[in-house]
Amino acid sequence: MTTSVIIPAAGSGVRLGENRPKAFVDVGGASILARTVASILAVDDLELDRIVVVVPAEMIGPVREELAGVGCEVVVVAGGAERSDSVRAGLQHVTGEFVLVHDAARPFTPVPVFRRVVAALRAGNPVVVPGLPVVDTLKRVDAQDRVDETVDRAVLRAIQTPQGFHADALVAAYAPDSDGPGTATDDAGLAERAGLPVLVVDGDPDAFKITTPWDLRLARDFAKGRA
Ligand SMILES: Nc1ccn([C@@H]2O[C@H](COP(=O)(O)OP(=O)(O)OP(=O)(O)O)[C@@H](O)[C@H]2O)c(=O)n1
Ligand SMILES: C[C@](O)(CO)[C@H](O)COP(=O)(O)O
């Protein structure tokens, strides 16, 4: 069963505040995107068909150049305004039975996380996501930040990527009429709307998403420990 990986890397990184698209910010001598590609290539039993990297249009040329010769087929295409637009663009170029969608912004995702997701796909689950228990108390608030209720965190998971799909499940999730009201913040959210069952396997704190300046400091410290 071969696998394609879509890496959405077309975000602008507004919350990071580095004044350049986040995937191209340097972390310890390599771009966030280059580290993420390397983390995928480290999964030697993935049966990897190709990696589809979705980037801002002006970065297509430089990224093709940077990733030429990484040791697997890499397709580089332009993304869209929202993350889901970028994944949809990448989806046009996938091959193989399984598709993983993996944020460029999670460069330190450990190999076992990929393996757990793929093992659950191979076991027949159409949609598989890694997740972590929530450690803080969660409260629902109103528009004035007044607490409405405390939510039962025992039944909640913080969801990471890679999110894994049987290819036909991802196509169904991204069918033109699947968006529904509001924007899905992850790919599995679209699959849920399409009526597909979604399984959560264990994630890993190291698979954190670089979103804020604090995350970038953490990532740079992390890179020092791994360099
Ligand atoms: N239009 C978009 C928006 C996001 N992404 C990608 O989706 C992943 C998760 O998105 P996020 O962390 O929100 O990245 P940004 O959109 O860059 O961040 P921000 O919302 O702070 O601008 C990132 O790898 C990002 O590059 C994308 O490919 N296309
Ligand atoms: C896909 C995701 O990483 C799962 O946690 C997350 O939803 C992306 O959110 P963002 O706001 O686009 O970073």
From TrEMBL:
InterPro entries with a match to the protein in the record: IspD, IspD/TarI, IspD/TarI_cytidylyltransf_bact, ISPD_synthase_CS, Nucleotide-diphossugar_trans
Site (Positions MEP for the nucleophilic attack): 153, 209
Catalytic function, reaction form: 2-C-methyl-D-erythritol 4-phosphate + CTP + H(+) = 4-CDP-2-C-methyl-D-erythritol + diphosphate
Keywords, ordered alphabetically: Isoprene biosynthesis, Nucleotidyltransferase, Transferase
EC class of the enzyme, as a word: transferase
Gene3D superfamilies for this protein: Spore Coat Polysaccharide Biosynthesis Protein SpsA, Chain A
GO MF term list: 2-C-methyl-D-erythritol 4-phosphate cytidylyltransferase activity
Family: Belongs to the IspD/TarI cytidylyltransferase family. IspD subfamily.
Enzyme Commission number(s): 2.7.7.60
Known function: Catalyzes the formation of 4-diphosphocytidyl-2-C-methyl-D-erythritol from CTP and 2-C-methyl-D-erythritol 4-phosphate (MEP).
Pfam families in the cross-refs: IspD
Pathway involvement of the protein, from the record: Isoprenoid biosynthesis; isopentenyl diphosphate biosynthesis via DXP pathway; isopentenyl diphosphate from 1-deoxy-D-xylulose 5-phosphate: step 2/6
CDD domains reported in the protein's UniProt record: CDP-ME_synthetase (cd02516)
Site (Transition state stabilizer): 15, 22
Protein name: 2-C-methyl-D-erythritol 4-phosphate cytidylyltransferase
S-adenosyl-L-methionine among keywords: no
NCBIfam families, A to Z: ispD (TIGR00453)
GO biological process: isopentenyl diphosphate biosynthetic process, methylerythritol 4-phosphate pathway
Signal sequence bounds: none
